[in-house]
Amino acid sequence: MTRSRLLPVTRETHHVQIDLVYATDRNLTGKPIYKTQHCLLLEPAEAALRKAVTIAQSFGATLKIFDAYRPPQAQEVLWNFLPDPTFIADLGRGSNHSRGTAVDLTLVDSDGIEFDMGTGFDAMVPESGHFHAGLPAHVQRNRTLLLGVMHGAGFAHIPSEWWHYELPGSRELALIDNEESGPLRLM
Ligand SMILES: [Zn+2]
Fold first, then answer.
1. Which of 54, 112, 150, 165 is least surrounded, with the fewest CB atoms within 10 Å of its CB?
2. Are the CB atoms for 100 and 40 separated by under 8 Å?
3. What is the CATH number of domain 6-181?
4. Can you give the residue ranges of every domain in the chain?
5. CA distance 98 to 177
């Protein structure tokens, strides 16, 4: 792959909502990890996200982003907090968030209300898995809707987290160091 850049994703340019929970204390560590709400994706992922926004708009919804590019140093903070490879990519393997090709997100309606996905973002429980048996039908429907939007735009899902999507083949790409991420500094 040719050299790609991290591109900013904003509410204005991409018609999405952005709530980077790692810039708040509403994440699994209970403390802010990022200093700013700066949302970045690698070029091909940014293009796919634009496509996803268009698909969601076709049924009156939009996307709300919880995390996108994540500096490897932030991944280290998460891994040290919860060293469980089911939910956190270990440091040797690296997270596709640190490759700029993964995005955590949900659907919101025209009033900005999040679709009911049964579990919250970053809920490290079996119920967060796609197609987990026993979830209410409307939850399965909402998750399947998000799945359709993201697959239609070219993203792949992972079984354990309904909110996580990434470009196929991400593993081949290099991790992007925090130096290149500009304003996305860690606390
Ligand atoms: Zn993710």
1. 112
2. yes
3. 3.30.1380.10
4. 6-181
5. 8
Contact 19/64 with Cβ under 8 angstroms?
yes
Helix (H, G, I), strand (E, B) or coil at 85: coil
Q: What is the mean pLDDT of residues 92-107?
A: 93
How many residues make up the chain in this entry? 187
Q: Both tokens of residue 25?
A: 């204390």
User: Which are the catalytic amino acids?
Assistant: 161
Distance 35 CA to ligand 1 centre (A): 19
CA of 78 from ligand 1 middle (Å) equals 12
| Pairing of β 62-67 and β 17-18 | parallel
Give the C-alpha separation, 11 to 159, whole Å.
28
pTM of the model: 0.92
